[in-house]
Structures are given as structure tokens and as C-alpha cells.
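[Automated response] Your request has been received and processed.

Submitted sequence:
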Amino acid sequence: MSTDESRSLRERKKLATREALSAAALRLALTHGPDNVRVEDIAEAAGVSPRTYNNYFSSREEAIVAAITAERALRIAAALRARPANEPLAESVVEALVEQYGEPPADALLLITSAPTLRAEYVDAVAAIEQPLASAIAARTGSKDDLATAVLAAAVSAAARVAVERWVRTVPGTNLVVPRGALADILREALTHVLPALRAADPRLS
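Generated structure:
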């Protein structure tokens, strides 16, 4: 087996372990409630040791949310790369995010909105889109300016984070979360504030 093949096999095994842990975490949380799930329980359900679990996740909340947002960052980047070549960058970025940033299944959404720690982790998970998005923007625009594309992706990520945070915000004076309209609509509205920067970075419009 070549070095590249060996590395690829290790990566596939790591990904499979991560997916098994996150799936087990979500399953246990849905069955017993997130506050009743221990790291040891997740590790046992996935067939690994707690030490192995700690190599992949820093908390049970991170593992639970990982199952809900699995591969979202890579899917968004792939969706952006797949948009029509003649489409303006701003439109492509918005549509790629809205297309891939779907609302969680009803049971997962209820879980997220009923647990403050999970809600916070779900919002924080938006940051994962930043690096893959920067690479996809660079590929689409042909830009060699790593700083510019990183800043642009960070701005898009920040807008998406604000949208998600508002979508799962609690009703003032209560712990009740009532999602405000469709997440896609809130995303579109939030992203309007970064459209000027996306248009400025579009070589088609310069």
C-alpha cells in the first residue's frame, strides 16, 4: 500500500469514527435528553473508548450538534463551486448557503431549541463554514489574495451566524424558543448586508 493510500485509509477511518460518535450522541440525546447523556455513554454506543472520543469532540454538545450539521461546511463549498460559471458571485454565495443550510429535522430542532447549551453550540457551529467557503470563493474568483478571500468568507460566516442566532433566539422573559419564520428567509436578509463586498470581489463586475 502506498503512502497516499495509507493516508486515505486513515482519513476514512477517522471520518467513520467521528460520524459514529456524533450519530450515537444524537441518538442518545433524543432518547434520554441531552442532560442525561455522558461522554462514556456516547463512546460505548459507538464502540470506542472515552479517550478516543476526546480526540474528536470537546463536549457532548459538540458531538450532538455535529450529527445535525454533518458535513455542512463542505457541502456549502461544493455547492458554491457547482453554481453556474456565469452567475454573479454574490448570487452564487447566497444560493449556495440557502440551499445547504436547511432547517434541522423536527426532532433535532426541538432538541436544539429546548437546551441552551445545544442552542449555543448550534450557533457557534456556523464558524466551520469559513475556511471551506474562503477556498471556494478563491477558486470561483481566481483570487490569489488569501487575506481578501478569508475576510470575505468571515463576513459571510458572521452574517449566517447572526441569522441562525436570531432564528433560535428565546422569547424575551422566557426560555421558550419559537423560530421566527423560515431560516432561509432570515439568511437571505442577513446576507444582503455583505452583498456589496461580494460584488466588489467579483471579477465579472470589475
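Summary generated for your ticket: Residues 3-32 form the longest helix (30 residues). The two ends are 49 Å apart (CA to CA).
If you did not submit this request, please reply to this message.
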